[in-house]
Amino acid sequence: MTTHVNLTNRQQQVLWATVRHYIATAEPVGSEALVKEYNLSVSSATIRSAMGNLEKAGLLYQPHVSAGRVPSDSGYRIYVDRLIQPATEVTIQIEQLFSDRLNWDKWSFEALLKGAAQILSTLSGYIVLMTMPLTHTTQLRHVQIVQVDARRVMLIVVTDTYETQSAMLDLPKAEDGSEWDADLLDRELQILSNFLNDQLRGRSLAELRVLDWSELGREFDRYSTILTSLLKDLSQQFAQSSLPTQLLISGVSEVLRQPEFSELEQVKTLLHLLEAEQHQLVPLIFDQLGSDASRRRVSIRIGSENPLEPIRTCTLISSTYHRGSVPVGSVGVLGPTRMLYEDTIALVKATADYLSEALS
């Protein structure tokens, strides 16, 4: 995506106004419309020049020779990353609706999810995708580190479902640069295995990502690099088996009223994805192992950034909800790239926060 483009203040204003006008009208935007609708305090010729420069940068394009311009995926990306803030008034609105219409003290969490999905799809006007929380998070039953040869060790993990996983790692040189003493290494690895069993037994694999290994004892500092690599590898191995499998979908009829979905074939491929290929969508909205969920609160995939062909003309905005610090489910909104991003980002984040609070 072309996010490194340097834009003047005027070009940023024109890009912002063009995107806003196109979102509102679904019609290609000309300079005259921007002069009438937005207080840019410049002439139509100046706006045309700025739009021409934005087109050269790949941020706008003309669908037809005689038409105005519309934003490209790169244009939307810069709009989202640089030119907007989530709409706080929409956050207040959905929080009030949740408070008025939902009751987490008396409802099951599934009923709460369905109610929140319906409210979110009504307010956004787009398709809402929610994963059920992980009802069973794989837990560690036994950990063992064994010496394979003079330079390698293997970490073996047995889960509470008696599934076994292993990871191999090369040992660093001993502190004095020599090879490790085999007998000493065996004894230390057994001590380390006992220590890890004491610290990790009963913990979920998802929790491994949020543990502060620096607090597990200075006597094992020398193993911190090994442990970090081994456990990261194991987390990746368990990623697919730890994904939620049930997806709640709401608001399909709402989004199909948008002009982007006027072609029957496009609608059919989208509906097929939503009905028969849900397993392909789940990793996109519940990316618990591919990123730091606490830092990246909201994920936004615009158009061609989506890997699945049926939604490459759509935007997918998602966020995880948590039980404590562990991500257990997700909230996603799917709509055309001509999306009211300020509102939708705020709605998704507020919904994820509400579900996290309900779980706590």
TrEMBL record:
Keywords: Repressor, Stress response, Transcription, Transcription regulation
Record's signal peptide: none
Domain of life of the source: Bacteria
InterPro entries per UniProt: GAF-like_dom_sf, HrcA, HrcA_C, WH-like_DNA-bd_sf, WH_DNA-bd_sf, WHTH_transcript_rep_HrcA_IDD
A GO molecular-function annotation: DNA binding
UniProt keyword annotation of Transcription present: yes
One Pfam family cited in the UniProt record for this chain: HrcA
GO biological process, one term: negative regulation of DNA-templated transcription
Domain Heat-inducible transcription repressor HrcA C-terminal: from-to ranges: 110-345
PANTHER family with a match to the protein in the record: HEAT-INDUCIBLE TRANSCRIPTION REPRESSOR HRCA
Family: Belongs to the HrcA family.
Function as written in the Swiss-Prot or TrEMBL entry: Negative regulator of class I heat shock genes (grpE-dnaK-dnaJ and groELS operons). Prevents heat-shock induction of these operons.
Protein name, as recorded: Heat-inducible transcription repressor HrcA
Organism the protein comes from: Myxacorys almedinensis A
Designated gene of the protein: hrcA
